[in-house]
Amino acid sequence: MVEEAVWWSLADQLDAISDGSLSAEELAQVYLARIDRLDGNLASFVAVNDRSSELGREVDQAVRAGKKVPVLAGALIGVKDNYTTKDLPTRAGTEVEDLAFPNDDSFAVGQLRAAGAGIIGKTRMHEFAWGNITPPTRNPWARDYVPGGSSGGSGAAVATGLCSAALGSDTGGSVRIPAAACGTVGLKPTFGALGRTGIIPHSWSLDHPGPITRNVRDAALLMGALAGRDARDPSSINVSGSAYVDACTRSLKGSSVGVIRNHFGEGVVPDVARRFDECLAFLRDSGVTVREFEIPSLEYGLAAIFAIELASASAYHDRAVQLGWTQGFQPDVQDLVDMGRFVTAVDYLHAEQIRSVMCTEFAEVLKTVDVIASPTCPITAWPAGQWYVDVNGEEEHVLAASWRFTYPFDLTGMPAISVPAGLDDKGLPIGLQFAGRPFREVDVLSFAAAYERAHDWSARRPPGFD
Amino acid sequence: MDSLRRVTGLPFDDDRMKELLEKYGPMLTEIEKLRTLELKHVFPAVRFDPETAADGGTAVEKEE
User: Fold this and answer.
1) Complex ipTM, two decimals?
2) Interfacial B residues in 3-62 facing A (CB < 8 Å)
3) Separation in Å, CA of A351 to nearest CA in chain B
4) Per-residue pLDDT, B61
């Protein structure tokens, strides 16, 4: 039974641990054995916590003693390598030894530990979260394909049953893209809803922490545990963590969804487009009104995120550039960090202005519908080493294509979730995205959970990982 | 190239500067779209809060 528990939801694991029917120590041992057996090829972890079994034993002892255990007691969470941790090294995906990071728990890791969770290890990420390939991590569904990124290790580890759930971070789609590519759920909460102290910055006004999980309810559960005021993060808002799980059982009847026909309706590969149409049909059958809109400012969204992300990342790394340390970065990341200095201050401020326009236009749409639906990505995962994909007869750079539908919600700060929506003709996962009003995570969770309940995509396992 | 090095603060030789400019070209083409817009009535999505405490400040107490 313990071997099978790695495929259970986090919520089911916690229920079984708290009633004594599942040993947290044995679960930890199974996870560690699986990482040892399977991760050499998958490469989803960069560090593993050898104390995981000990943490589980402590939970088992508390349960046997009849003590009330915290809400996440016995959970073993994989944490992206840009969250600092007191007991595991943090490298943010870089091999540059001159760069050192604090040995303190990040706010999010502190929240997890306070809720009783253990950290099973640090998951691999694209260096400094500046890319969505995450080498050398492999896609669990097809080993020659990328897992997405930058939280690719978290997506791959959750998909293959190597941890109960994981944390990622999302600046242009880095939670939702690997979630979609690996067949898992990825939640990017509203900007400010989760504290960021101790997450190595990529772009201060775009970075969002978020969970990657086996199903929507687990994302809600982690959202509740992670929420809370982070006094050292100027963007942090104190949000309540109580309503997220309840939202996952809400009926959609009488609610409404918006579809943005410009930008989100363009350049989608046939398998993904077909699955999205099926999703809309499901929503209509569920009593949801589907309305169509256009957001004119999306024409300038890519310009805005280029200017903000390039300038911000280069500002963060500026001393490293001056000291020559960026020469030790991976070539793609080095280029992006070095070239951010070309963004002028005027261009940067224009980007922040169009961002305001974009927020206003999305807010107008969300006055008349509850959420906005789209595919998470217009493509599925692509072969490692391939830089261009065919999108309906036109070649598009994989990086440009993969984040096209995710970055708008980093610019606007709106909550957005990716939920598994089937496989393409190559057996690669497709993601469905719902985005909602700021601080209305309950809406995106309820839509994603309703879709998940009616389909079995989240329960499917990648081949070869039993 | 010396002027560009000074304006940008990038400490690279001519070859690296040219390589970066070439790679930046497609992104600049996108960013240039922003320059075609009249945005003077739009407040940028940045907020200054003088009361917000921030880590990493460089201010030091002045000695008497």
Assistant:
1) 0.91
2) 8-12, 16, 20-21, 23-24, 27-28, 30-35, 37, 39, 42-46, 49, 52-55
3) 7
4) 60
